[in-house]
Specification:
Largest sheet: 4 strands, parallel
Helix content: 40-55%
Low-confidence stretches: 119-125
Radius of gyration: 20 Å
Pfam families: ECH_1
Shape: globular
Number of domains: 2
Number of helices: 11
Structural class: alpha/beta
Order of helices and strands: HEHHEEHEEHHEHEHHHH
Family: Belongs to the enoyl-CoA hydratase/isomerase family.
CATH architecture of the largest domain: Alpha-Beta Complex
Strand order of the largest sheet: 1-2-4-7
Protein name: ECH1 protein
InterPro entries: ClpP/crotonase-like_dom_sf (IPR029045), Ech1-like (IPR045002), Enoyl-CoA_hyd/isom_CS (IPR018376), Enoyl-CoA_hydra/iso (IPR001753), Enoyl-CoA_hydra_C (IPR014748)
Keywords: Fatty acid metabolism, Isomerase, Lipid metabolism
Mean pLDDT: 87
Distance between the termini: 26 Å
CATH topology of the largest domain: 2-enoyl-CoA Hydratase, Chain A, domain 1
Number of strands: 7
Length: 242
């Protein structure tokens, strides 16, 4: 619930242009609390099975939203992963647009160990993770640990940094670079990338054309052109909030 509320606020906040998600403890995520999960999704044994299933489905949809809300957020979201990233944490970072990790990071989906198809509503690898069916299937079936070098080689993350301090410095630096760009361009780009990901090229291009018939009229374009002529960077342009 807190993730949903947080990212809904971020989506509406014109002062926010990029987001970094990191862990405060010794791990990025320690995995879900199974006892807490059981109580959250348990229904009354005396309740009609159809009604119990209907209620459970609503709770599963709410659970899914805690991750998909990050993908729906128009602001780019950067995951900075240190230490273990376990279970639903993998789903969480999969919903982020950019993923960095420290050298000590590890990733694990404990579906097989927990004797269930995974936390309600979660898949071993969400749409944001590269589609490598063999590897995805292996991780889902075996629950083996993926270390940082392998995560980089398979595209789960795009950078591996030596330690948590460097990781956060780089992640915040990338966020600052994104925030310096035109919010019309950045947020429009994310909307179109997400829309086009699982659709035919022609449909994606049509969506971009419809989107840009309005967005290309932004005042940010002449500002950017003038900055380039003046040999200035985007951080020198006073782009209005969006």
């Amino acid at each position: 619930r807190e993730l949903v509320e947080c990212f809904q606020d971020i989506s509406r906040d014109p002062s926010c242009r990029a987001v970094v998600v990191s862990g405060a403890g010794s791990a990025f995520t320690a995995g879900i609390d199974l006892s807490d999960l059981g109580s959250a999704f348990a229904g009354s044994p005396d309740e009609d099975v159809a009604r119990r299933a209907w209620s459970l489905r609503q709770r599963i949809l709410e659970f899914q939203e805690s991750f998909s809300v990050m993908e729906k957020c128009p602001k780019p979201v950067i995951a900075a992963v240190h230490g273990p990233c376990i279970g639903a944490g993998v789903d969480l970072i999969s919903a982020c647009d950019i993923r960095f990790c420290s050298q000590d990071a590890s990733f694990q989906v404990k579906v097989g160990r927990e004797g269930s198809p995974g936390p309600p509503g979660c898949t071993p690898v969400s749409p944001g993770v590269p589609g490598v069916p063999s590897l995805v299937n292996e991780l889902a079936f075996t629950a083996r640990v993926v270390r940082a070098p392998e995560a980089l080689s398979c595209g789960l993350v795009s950078r591996v940094l030596p330690d948590k301090a460097t990781l956060l410095e780089v992640a915040l630096g990338v966020a600052a670079a994104i925030a310096a760009r035109s919010p019309v361009a950045v947020q429009g780009t994310k909307v179109n990338l997400v829309y086009s990901r699982d659709r035919p090229v022609a449909e994606g291009l049509l969506h971009v054309a419809t989107w840009n018939m309005a967005m290309l009229q932004t005042e940010d374009i002449p500002k950017s052109v003038q900055a380039a002529l003046d040999k200035k960077g985007p951080e020198d342009v006073p782009f209005a909030k969006l």
